[in-house]
Amino acid sequence: MKKDEIKQAMPLYLVTDRRWLKEPLSEAVEKAIQGGVTCIQLREKHLSQEEFINEGKTLLNICHQYHIPLIINDDIDVMLEVDADGIHVGQNDMDAKTVRKMIGSDKILGVSVRTVDQALKAQDNGADYLGVGSVFVTHTKDDAKHVDIQTLKVICQSVDIPVIAIGGIGQDNILELQQSGIDGVAVVSAIMAQDDIVKASQDLKRLVKQL
User: Which Pfam families match (predicted)?
Assistant: First the structure.
């Protein structure tokens, strides 16, 4: 994807977590997209690789019907097998430079960062966007470390690629990120744990436009 297309995909970025759901993941994802989600990251820590691949292929078809990208969390083998649009890696995963070599120049590479140094290194190593967090307390990822909003602002000022905030973001606190310089937010339970996924996505999309 081109740089402007990647930036357009960042405003409302959904990271999946099936633990919250009372329906198939594919149905929940489609509802979220219909409500305004602009990018999907498939995050699976408890599926076999075969199940992960099958779920990825199902979601890729849905995402492409709506012309939005599907990003795979961490697993390059799954990303390549699914032929997903990109991959997202953390600081404890494979080095971004190595990942870029493995996936080629056409795929999207997202990297999680918490400091300016990490952000600059990720950009130099070929990242297309950065996920910065956790900006608020989150119960989705137990080991998430806090990043204050001032650090988030400096990261946004220091790089030329899109930055999205992640971690504990919901309708009650999203506007605290105004003036931070971010290009979007990544959410999990703010959509996945809601009874009405379409409405939750619509409400968040309206708030994102105020950032």
Answer: TMP-TENI (PF02581)
Element (H, E) at 108: strand 108-113
42 annotated among ligand-binding-site residues: yes
pLDDT tens digits, 5-56 = 999 999 999 999 999 999 999 999 999 999 999 999 999 999 999 999 999 9
DSSP state of 144: P
- Consult the annotation and say whether 189 binds a ligand: yes
Q: Structure pTM?
A: 0.97
Q: Please list the active-site residues.
A: 43, 112, 141
- Three-state SS sequence of 48-73: CHHHHHHHHHHHHHHHHHCCCCEEEE
Q: Tell whether 18 is in a known binding site.
A: no
Ordered structural domains, the chain, with CATH: 3-208 (3.20.20.70)
Rounded to the nearest 5°, which phi and psi values hold at 155?
-60, -45
